[in-house]
């Protein structure tokens, strides 16, 4: 069967053109908006969201390493890399949304990288503070570990909540396009102002407290789902009983 010439030309043209961006809502956060602009040209290329997640992981690991060395300028470089890693973390999600390449495996990989980078970030800060304040009443590495473990628990519980009620259940508070996670963009400023020690203490206290809050939220969501399931079961049994009596 011979294909008409005009149809053949149309097929060649459409095949060579990259897919158009998906009609998805525009992001509200400023960094997500910038990430959307940067990743849009990647549509139709071999770049996938997982590639960007791996890039974010590599930058974050480098940042945590430089933070741990205890030297001021290397710490400043590490802080810049952490801030950059935090921004790159938005690019994978935006590319996944507009290209339709979202997957459970990719989402889990993204969350695992987020947790790992954040934990190592606090551990690195702990090593930095220990170099400058070796005689703290609590070793600074322990403080970094406490903050890191608390952050890991927060990531795990939020992932469980999201699996039960969707992303709306883990949405962070935002003001004027900024979320609580955007505090990492201020890390280079904290470094320059020599504020790593109070930042570490704040994280070692605040992260466990927030982990407790998330744990209560997880318990609340679990109870609500259990009550809903019980009510649905009772309703279904009631309907079955009425139907049985009507037939009898």
Description:
74% of the residues lie in helices and 2% in strands. With 248 residues, the chain is an all-alpha fold. It has a single domain (25-171, 181-239), classed as Up-down Bundle (Four Helix Bundle (Hemerythrin (Met), subunit A)), CATH 1.20.120.1760. Strands 1-2 form a two-stranded antiparallel ribbon. The radius of gyration is 24 Å and the shape is flat. It starts with a helix and ends with a helix. Mean pLDDT is 82; it is low at 12-22 and 244-248.
Summarize the structure.
The protein has 248 residues and is mostly helical.
Architecture blueprint of SSEs:
Layout: H1 5-16, H2 30-39, H3 49-68, H4 72-99, H5 104-132, H6 140-165, E1 174-175, E2 178-179, H7 187-192, H8 196-247
Antiparallel strand pairs: 1-2
Helix pairs in contact: 2-4, 3-4, 3-5, 4-5, 5-6, 5-8, 6-8
Q: What would the keywords be for this entry?
A:
248 residues; mainly alpha; Four Helix Bundle (Hemerythrin (Met), subunit A); two-stranded antiparallel ribbon; 8 helices; disordered C terminus
Mean pLDDT: 82
Share of helix, binned = over 70%
State the order of secondary-structure elements, H for helix, E for strand. HHHHHHEEHH
Q: Which value, in Å, is the CA radius of gyration?
A: 24 Å
At CATH level 3, the topology is Four Helix Bundle (Hemerythrin (Met), subunit A)
